[in-house]
Amino acid sequence: MGIPPIILNEFDIPVAITYGNHDTEGQYNRQYLRDAEAKLNNLANKHHSYLVDDRENYTLEIFDSETDRLVNVIYVWNSGDYSNWSKISKYAAIGRHQINWYAKTSNQPFNKTFDIGFLHIPLAEYLAVNKEQVVGSYNEKPCPATINSGLFHELLVKDKVKAIFAGHDHDNNFASEYFGIQLNYGNVTGYNAYGRLARGVLAIDLYNDKVERRIIKF
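-> structure tokens emitted (218 positions)
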């Protein structure tokens, strides 16, 4: 099956991708999606790429344009789709190998950095967010994996990642904080999915000591 034309190639903007639970429900598997991704003209420069259980995890490195000093590391986890143990959890959890990958990668001799992370299915800690103390829209209960595999604990131990961004729950686009780590949602973009939120994107301004976010509606 050939790779169709890719609309992202019309824009001179670096692109980084991770997949969600719906992306391979049709005729395309993750290998096909990765093959299509490889055809991008401006694919972001991945580091520490690690493919496990058909999920690719990698980092992006951001350097200060004036000093060429590494100031941010962006961790990207492919959170998979559905659990192998449907009676316990509908959605897949971040795997132990993925947590070990983060533990090892975050030990690299980086400069002191302000790091963030992206995944599709939110972590179980999103359930601890107080609905009355968020910025943005909290319109549905978060739907993480029922199993808490421990990534958030590793983030606390390493004390590098200061914000996590998830998708998955289309009626949420809120930001909150839990034990010093910002828990965020993006914003539903497509029109072929459920959700009452106005379609748009989450824009993130990343600095060497903070992250700011804003919703841009279509």
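The helical segments are 30-37, 96-105, 151-158.
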